């Protein structure tokens, strides 16, 4: 395939050092040399992890190892309405009011967070992004409105459910980035959002950075980073019916804790990983940050190629890329083998994503609300599993559905099961479905945000990715993270429920 070559890394020659003073210190030098030799031999056979390979190439080096501080070239910088104005402010302050960005074709700006709110400062943030994109000639600005000289104002009188966006609006950044052809294997993606790690599903090094770093990348296209150690999660077998990718990542985070991967790469591979769909890989990679991970990464395969090639072609974005491939005996800081066939529907309880329990053991946990949406849980495949459980039934608690992107809204409204669309099946089940795709209540937002928890003491089961106190609104509320199937089953009973009870639906 044109433009696609697997990364191969050559080796620096290793030279054994001899002791200068001889005699009594020989015992020290051979030991040190032996340790160094073993480490180097890893590289001598190209034994870097996927993450190290990408970082080495981006730094123009033949090899790197965990702990190295290196300057890497960015392929894409993404920002959104919450961090974009701050990033632009840093860029202008440091590089000058009339400075030009390092590469206007490598900056992607996606308003998605605080969009469908009457909060005037949030609306103004979208205008700041528009002004900057126009000034810089940035093509990949996915504006909320079609008028490039206009102002965004959410019209609360029209309500939350009917769409209020123009033709270029793209929805949640992490879901929109791959769909719009901006994620490519082997590349470096920096984003001003912690869940940027989701693009690791595409064999890419993708990580979240702060506004200051992003302002620097905006001006130079470079960033100094420390090469992370890599943790290895080998997935074997296949998921059983009723168990989803969300259960895999909740299981893994439960194993290591919500800080167990702090500043580490999480590499997912093995036969079980290659059996997973692209959406499933995105769900898993998305939540690496919930264990503190620097990035997540999957192997490149035919599924990756099919997805990426179709999206870059459809959107006319850069079509060449160079994936990285695994070496067999690369070194990891940690190893976990996960037999997917043994996993069960899993819940991360309040107050952090590492509080793992089995859904079947939580049937005495009463709930007030259910929520499906976000970059993690608002994809078409998530809503399909949500609808599969709810079809022909009625929810008994307040239940909200927020697709991640307008394209997903269209998918759900145009895909029929029998005489009803998936969208209609959900509405008939009592789900409040909004066409205003975006982050919505995943991170709370202004008080008029759709689905936001505004009352103290509410317990919500959610297909989102983070459940620290106050994440979805009120600080005294509790959020339980689960798969869309588990959220659906729980919405039907008003308590945490194992979706396998509804497999016949
Ligand atoms: S949907 Fe939630 S996790 Fe994803 S980008 Fe938006 S706020 Fe962040």
CATH topology name of the domain at 344-502, in short, is Aconitase, domain 3
What is the terminal separation in angstroms? 43 Å
Instruction: Quickly name the level 1 CATH class of the domain at 344-502.
Output: Alpha Beta
Largest sheet: 5 strands, parallel
Q: What low-confidence regions span 5 or more consecutive residues with pLDDT below 50? A: 1-45
Which compounds are bound in this model?
Answer: iron/sulfur cluster
Strand sequence of the main sheet, in spatial order?
A: 17-14-13-18-19
Q: Estimate the helix proportion, in percent.
A: 25-40%
By DSSP (H or I, 4+ residues per run), the number of helices equals 15
Quick check: average pLDDT? 92
Question: Can you put this structure into words, describing what you see?
Answer:
This protein is α/β, with parallel strands linked by helices and 505 residues long. Among the domains are: 145 residues, Aconitase, domain 3, CATH 3.30.499.10; 159 residues, Aconitase, domain 3, CATH 3.30.499.10. Helix content is 30%, strand content 16%. The strands form six sheets. A five-stranded parallel sheet has the order 17-14-13-18-19. A four-stranded parallel sheet has the order 3-2-4-5, with helices on one face. Strands 9-8-7-10 form a four-stranded parallel sheet. It is globular, with a radius of gyration of 23 Å. The N terminus is likely disordered.
Notable characteristics:
binds iron/sulfur cluster, four-stranded parallel β-sheet, five-stranded parallel β-sheet, alpha/beta, globular, Aconitase, domain 3, 505 residues
């Amino acid at each position: 395939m044109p433009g696609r070559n697997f990364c191969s890394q050559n080796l620096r020659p290793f030279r054994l050092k001899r002791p200068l003073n001889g005699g009594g210190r020989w015992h020290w030098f051979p030991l040190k040399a032996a340790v160094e030799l073993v480490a180097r031999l890893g590289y001598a056979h190209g034994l870097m992890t996927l993450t190290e390979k990408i970082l080495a190439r981006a730094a123009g080096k033949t090899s790197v190892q965990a702990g190295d501080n290196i300057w890497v070239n960015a392929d894409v910088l993404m920002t959104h309405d919450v961090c974009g104005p701050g990033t632009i402010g840093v860029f202008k302050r440091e590089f000058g009011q009339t400075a030009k960005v390092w590469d206007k074709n490598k900056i992607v700006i996606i308003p998605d967070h605080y969009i469908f709110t009457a909060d005037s400062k949030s609306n103004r943030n979208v205008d700041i992004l528009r002004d900057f994109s126009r000034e810089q000639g940035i093509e990949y600005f996915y504006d909320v409105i079609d008028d490039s000289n206009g102002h965004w104002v959410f019209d609360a009188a029209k309500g939350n459910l009917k769409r209020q966006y123009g033709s270029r609006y793209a929805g949640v950044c992490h879901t929109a980035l791959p769909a719009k052809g901006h994620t490519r294997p082997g590349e470096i993606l920096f984003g001003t959002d912690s869940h940027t790690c989701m693009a690791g599903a595409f064999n890419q090094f993708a990580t979240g950075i702060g506004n200051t770093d992003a302002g620097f990348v905006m001006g130079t296209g470079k960033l100094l980073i420390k090469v992370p150690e890599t943790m290895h999660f080998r997935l074997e077998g296949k998921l059983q019916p009723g168990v989803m990718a969300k259960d895999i990542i909740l299981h893994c985070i439960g194993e290591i804790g919500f800080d167990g991967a702090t500043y580490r790469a999480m590499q997912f591979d093995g036969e079980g990983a290659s059996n997973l769909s692209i959406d499933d890989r995105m769900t898993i990679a998305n939540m690496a940050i919930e264990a503190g991970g620097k990035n997540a990464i999957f192997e490149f395969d035919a599924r990756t190629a099919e997805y990426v090639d179709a999206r870059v072609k459809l959107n006319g974005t850069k079509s060449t890329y160079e994936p990285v491939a695994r070496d067999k005996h690369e070194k990891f800081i940690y190893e976990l083998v996960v037999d997917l066939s043994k996993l069960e529907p899993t819940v991360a309880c309040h107050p952090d994503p590492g509080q793992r329990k089995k859904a079947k053991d939580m049937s005495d946990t009463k709930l007030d609300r259910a929520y499906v949406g976000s970059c993690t849980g608002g994809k078409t495949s998530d809503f399909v599993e949500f609808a599969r459980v709810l079809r022909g039934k009625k929810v008994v608690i307040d239940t909200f559905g927020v697709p991640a992107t307008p394209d997903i809204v269209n998918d759900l409204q145009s895909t029929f099961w029998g005489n009803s669309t998936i969208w209609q099946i959900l509405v008939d089940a009592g789900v409040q479905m909004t066409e205003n795709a975006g982050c919505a209540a995943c991170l709370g937002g202004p008080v008029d945000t759709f689905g936001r928890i505004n009352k103290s003491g509410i317990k919500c089961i959610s297909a989102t990715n983070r459940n620290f106190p106050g994440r979805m609104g009120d600080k005294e509320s509790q959020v339980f993270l689960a798969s869309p199937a588990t959220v659906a089953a729980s919405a039907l009973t008003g308590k945490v429920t194992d979706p396998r009870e509804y497999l016949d639906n």
